[in-house]
Each structure stands twice: as C-alpha cells, then as structure tokens.
Amino acid sequence: MGVSEMREKWVQAEALCPHRLVLEHVTSRWGVLVLDALLDRSYRFSELRREIGSVAKVSEKMLTQTLQTLERDGFVHRDAKPVIPPRVDYSLTPLGREAAERVRALAHWTGVRMDDVQRAREAYDEAKRREAAAAALN
C-alpha cells in the first residue's frame, strides 16, 4: 500500500469516527506522558524528552510525531522563536490543559484503585485456571 493510499484510508477513518482518533491521541502511551509533563510547565524539545525519559524511553521521532499530532488536535502550542540557535517551546493550549487535567486525574485514579484491579485480575486468572482444570478432567 502506497503512502497516498494510506493517507486516504486515514482521512476516511477520521471522517467516520473523529472523536475516537482524538481519544487515541490523548490516551496513547506518549500522549499521556506529554500532556502530563506539559501540565506542569512549558518545555523545550530536549527538556521534554528528558522529562518523559525519566518514565519511559521515547525516540526523537516518536516524540516529534506525538507533539505534531497533539498540536494538530489543538492541545499543544509550538512556539518557535527566530533566534540562533533556534528555540522551540511547547506548552498546552486551554483545550490541552483541560484534556491533561482529565488524563492526570485518570492516572491518579488508577494508582489509587490498583489494589482493586490486581484483586480482580487474580480472581479472573484463578477462575480461568479452574475452568481449564475442569475441562482437562472431562
């Protein structure tokens, strides 16, 4: 499949379900980390990469793509200053701040409720083990 065909499929998918794509951008692995970091302050690219790198290693390419996607969606503001060497700062727009606050709240909630999630996982796994054992006996 060529680049133009892939682009056309992407445009069609976006037209059919635009809110799902935005949700994917916000809740992606790197989207969550970028929004969370920028909620605290603006960052230059290298600073943001180091900040996110303290949690998970992100490639320059992936961070660039994530920032461009979030900028396109209206969540991130890219401020390129015409100085030498070039200086680019990234910050949240009001829409981005709203999304980041919700993402951070969800992250906090998962931390608070992780014990309950772990218990549910263990109960599920135990039930599956019992089902498998019972099936093996029959």
How would you concisely characterize the structure shown here?
The chain is mainly alpha-helical. It contains six helices and three strands. The mean pLDDT is 90.
Describe this structure in words.
The chain contains 6 helices and 3 strands. It has helices at residues 3-16, 18-27, 29-40, 45-53, 60-72, 94-137; strands at 43-44, 76-81, 87-92. The longest helix is centred in the C-terminal third of the chain and has 44 residues, at 94-137. It is extended, with a radius of gyration of 20 Å. The termini are far apart. The model has no long low-confidence stretch (mean pLDDT 90).
Short descriptors:
single chain, about 140 residues, mainly alpha, three-stranded antiparallel beta sheet, 6 helices, extended
